[in-house]
């Protein structure tokens, strides 16, 4: 069974590779950080690429409790590099049964 995070990453990769603005997108991980190498088609601006990345991420995150952290890293003559991460919420989302002080049962929704 896949988590929401894993499903969002898979859908994000699929949407990017199906995009008409991009020739292809490669996903690599260095020191645990995910990077996207975006190879644009001719006459595609950096602004268009960033909007496409955000649109694909929004579609992948829809219905899930995730947020997006995207940073431009660098550009070469053939591709752009972005660090794209989906962040999970920083608060507890369920009761673990250990009677924690910050238990989700003691908060108002």
TrEMBL record:
Top-rank lineage group of the source organism: Bacteria
Q: What is this protein called?
A: Uncharacterized protein
Recorded source organism is Halobacillus kuroshimensis
């Amino acid at each position: 069974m896949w988590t929401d995070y894993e499903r969002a990453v898979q859908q994000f990769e699929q949407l990017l590779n199906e995009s008409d603005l991009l020739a292809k997108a490669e996903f690599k991980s260095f020191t645990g950080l995910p990077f996207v190498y975006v190879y644009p088609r001719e006459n595609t601006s950096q602004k268009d690429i960033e909007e496409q990345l955000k649109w694909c991420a929004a579609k992948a995150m829809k219905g899930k409790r995730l947020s997006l952290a995207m940073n431009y890293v660098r550009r070469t003559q053939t591709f752009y590099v972005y660090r794209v991460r989906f962040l999970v919420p920083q608060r507890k989302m369920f009761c673990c049964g250990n009677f924690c002080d910050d238990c989700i049962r003691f908060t108002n929704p």
